Amino acid sequence: MKKxxxxxxxxxxxxxxxxxxVDAAERVFAAKPFPKVSMRDISGESGVSLSSIYRYFPxxxxxxxxxxxxxxxxxxxxxxxxxxxxxxxxxxxxxxFVDFLVENDPYFRMMTHFMLDGVLNEESIxxxxxxxxxxxxxxEKMFKRLTPLENSRMQAHAFFAALNGVLIxxxxxxxxxxxxxxxxxKQLARNLAAMFVRPGPGGKPVL
Length: 207
What we know:
The chain is mainly α. It contains 9 helices and no strands.
């Protein structure tokens, strides 16, 4: 059934308000430890009343997941052109992924929180798995091209875990200036990527 102009306007306004709230949530996540963020914080940051927020997001978890979905889509836009390049380089893909998470720290915080500490309902777990799956799909495509005789999905999982491990280990490295830490993480990511497709016996790439 075709929507009326009024229905279209209301839908447009709803999406604009949801974007406003997700934007505010990301800014709050960047300023406060994730477990300490409350809907009241997001209300204050967005200028939207607490009661109104619940008209767009039924609970805090749904708002966090909306921010995660948006972050995953941004990451996909970064990875897809690199994965689809004819002369694909896994080192470039690894560095781009680390760069993205460094530059989008709220998304990285949300992602790692839900993976390590989050207590989610069943529906949210399914959504989170889909979010992670979209990123794994890109890594799997890369490995299918580079190492077609290997288990590409398993390689994708290992690659994803290794890159996240670099960020978790070195993101707040003590005694180093931030630019140096970021450069170190990118170099580690490139080294890891080279190891994933290094030639084995007979020239066959191995994990």
